[in-house]
């Protein structure tokens, strides 16, 4: 009963204290696709993520009701940094839902034109609005509608100190006539949130930034090991670890703590900690407090134990191959930054095609054998087996009008000449060890796909090769040779395919560069690079996030310049967030049912090469 009454009181007091129009609320999830289209269409950086912004501290003068309800201490505002554009999780600023939706679009337009950091928040925002309205005059009616609604619903400031009243008046003038106000008074509290403007990025304490080092002995956690959360990003703060030499865990019975409270105790680290449970707890926190622990070197040996011993590892074929890598921050290739090792699967023995694939393989072979037997007429030839009636009729009509030089009037019967080299590059990262159902893992589907791909191309007689890749930092990129262009597709190759196993991480840029180098050595007029993956580029040394995406984009651009056609197949359902930037809108396809991949891969190849 007490909890029920408390719940009713909480709902009542928070609703009374809120200045938002809850009935007209629009969430970021409702408009994120539209916002993304507008932002990128108007020149925003294609690689930036567009996501909801978590609430941040905002020191504003609050009413008595807001103090009682604990409201208005944190606000979700619009801002951006080098990695992403963050927009409010929800907008209920106006009583009209369409206006709140338009406000999201307006913020995306502003963000697409923001250059650099703010020097003076209010003056720079005014100039940004002026620039946008000058460039796009058609937006003026929409802006004026938003501005008028914004002014109409500003809270009354007549009882506040003179300086705050002057600040409020200056903001209203700046909203009405952007660029007209150059002097803003100094106040002790921030003004009420100006949702029509962007805010400076939420700066992170330098101590919170990860301490990246080139030292190979320093290991970091793989961020992909934790299930991806749909929640917005959290604010983090770094604190000193008070008991860094004392590993004893203490339970304080005299007081109880909520999730959001922090007690400076050394938390024991257990290898069996549940990552999913940790993620759930993190989503409940407003601030995430971190302390840097200095462990003994022996405590970090477990990272290296993930690598198999030499006797159990795949067989290296040569010394490491040095490859460059693109650093987007300095906008240039860094020479000899990566080390790639060609390898053969260990314990592979000649194997027949698995029984479960034989029926499907026979159907695919029959389809592809038709490509080999296709013959066609080559029109308008100077000589040939038969007269080209269409060419002769055109020549006859033209000669009646004016003197016309005789053109090719014959047609010749030709066989199909498929001058193409294809390379299939498969991602063998550790995520392929995940189960799709009770019996099959992702890696099992990849094996079946590659085997049916081999059967299809062997039937048509096309020149092809197959490789796999995974990585552990830039100094250990594993490039698995399954079939090179000079080898015949036989039971030895089938055995290699059945011996593949999940690897480590996905340093895609280096693998694409090596595949490009192999393809350029082929004499074919057409060259196709098929990339099979289940996720975005990542590794554990700087390659996470934008760095990996930009390096992969650069590697694909290099391949295109050399006349190679890259195409990506993925089972990642979130691929639409990054693959259009990497491969273009027509350079990839998403397989929504991974179990269909073995059949879809040969079909896709047929579509790409059957002109």
UniProtKB/TrEMBL annotation:
CDD domains: vWA_norD_type (cd01454). Residues 211-221 have a biased composition (Acidic residues). Residues 211-243 are annotated as: Disordered. Residues 421-608 form the VWFA domain. This is VWFA domain-containing protein. It comes from Thalassotalea insulae. It comes from the Bacteria. Pfam families: VWA. InterPro entries: NorD/CobT, VWF_A, vWFA_dom_sf. PANTHER family: NORD PROTEIN (PTHR41248).
